[in-house]
Amino acid sequence: MLAWTEHLSVGEPTLDAHHQHLFKLLAEIDAMAEGGPGLDAVKAVFGELNRYIAYHFAEEEGMMERAGFPFLDLHRHSHQTIAMRVADMSAVLSAANVERVARELHGFLTGWLVHHIEIEDFEYRPFLAGGQ
Ligand SMILES: [Fe+2]
Fold first, then answer.
1. With contact defined as beta carbons under 8 Å apart, do 128 and 88 qualify?
2. Å from CA of 26 to ligand 1 middle
3. pLDDT score for 2
4. Which of 5, 8, 10, 23 has the fewest CB atoms within 10 Å, measured from its CB?
5. What is the pLDDT of residue 132?
6. Residue 38 Cα, ligand 1 centroid: separation in angstroms?
7. 35 alpha carbon to ligand 1 midpoint, in Å?
């Protein structure tokens, strides 16, 4: 099971806490995708995920902006793509496809979380830490 570890730290405690919460949601989705998930449970997770990524992305973008991070537009675009993928999956969710969509969401988040943090979020690390 994928978990947040110290080597995924972006050097900013608030954003690390956000990322840890996203891993917690991933663990919930993992447990759910295993056990023949009910539509209401999957809907609830999508609701929480949609809400939380919007909140996290806005906070993260605000910090990058204040730190003068030069690739903010690119990063913002990447956030929008992720939010749209999650919104699209939640829009097609129904009783008929609930297991498939839950597995798809799990696969997408597993791939995205670590990739996005290690590759894209790490780009802003020196800017937030150094205040340059
Ligand atoms: Fe990000």
1. no
2. 16
3. 82
4. 5
5. 42
6. 30
7. 30
Q: What distance in Å separates the CA atoms of residue 84 and residue 51, rounded to the nearest whole number?
A: 12
Ligand 1 centroid, distance to 58 Cα (angstroms): 9
Task: Compute mean pLDDT per 10 residues along the chain, 132 residues long, and list them.
Answer: 90 95 92 84 94 96 96 96 95 94 92 90 88 46
Q: List the shell of residues around ion ligand 1, using CB closer than 5 Å.
A: 121
pLDDT of residue 130: 60
Fold (CATH) for 36-130: Four Helix Bundle (Hemerythrin (Met), subunit A) (1.20.120)
Joined tokens for residue 34: 């295993």
Residue 26 in contact with residue 106, Cβ under 8 Å? Answer: yes
